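Posting for a labmate who doesn't have an account.
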Amino acid sequence: MLQPLIDWLYGLPFVQWLIELAPRFYRAFIEADRWKLYLQGLVVTFEITIAAIAMGLVLGLFVAMVRTAHDQQRPGRRNPLLGLVNAVCKVYTTVIRGTPMMVQILIWAFVIFKGERNKVMVGMVGMGVNAGAYISEIIRGGLMSVDPGQSEAGRSLGLGYVDTMRFIIIPQAFKNILPSMGNELVTLFKDTSLVNAIGAAEMTYYANRIGGKTYDYMPPLIGIACIYLVFVIILTWLQGRLERRLRQSDRR
C-alpha cells in the first residue's frame, strides 16, 4: 500500500534534487573527515570573536568615558589635555566607522603587519579596533542616557569621576546598552568571515579550500551558513534570557 506513495514521492522534483544533493554534502563534510576542518575553523571563529569583543570593550569603554567626561565639563573649566585626547578619540571613531571593515583588515594585514605570518592575530587586532569604535558609541549613548543628577549625587558623596562611573553610572547604563551590545557581538561573530581575505584559517577559509578540492562550492558554503545561523540563534536567545533576568531584578 505504501509503494505507490513512495513512488510518487520519489517522482517529485524536490525529492530528486535532495537525492542528488546528498552525495555532494557527503563529499563536503564526511569524506576524508573533512568535518574536522570545519570544527577547527569554528574554534578559530570563536577565538577571533572573543578577542575582538574583549579588545573592543576596552577601547570602547576608554573612548566613551573620555568623550563623556569632555562633554560634561562645566563652562569655563575646560581641561586642555582632555580636549586633545577627545579630539583623537573623535578622529578614531570617525575614521573607523567611515571605512569598510574589509579595507581595514587588508590594511592591517598588508600594510601595518605586512611581515606577520599569524593572520589570525592580525584579524583579531583589525576586528577589535573596528569593534572599539562602534562599542564606544554604544557605551557613550548608554552613559548619556543616565540622569546627570546621578553623577552629581556620586560626587556629593565624595566619589571621584572614575568611582562615580564604576559604581553608579556604568551599572545603570549597562541595562540600556545590552541590546545594542548583543547585536554588536552577533555582527562580530558573522564578520569573522572577512578575515578569510587575508588567509586566516576560520570557517570560510576551510569552506573555500574544500570547495576547491571537490570542485563544488555550494555544499560547504551552505553548510557554514547554517552553522553561523545556528550560533546566531543561540546568542540571540542567550541575550534575550539575560535581558529578561535584568528586567525581573528591576521589579524586585
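Reply:
Got it, the C-alpha cells are right above this. Residues 35-71 form the longest helix (37 residues).
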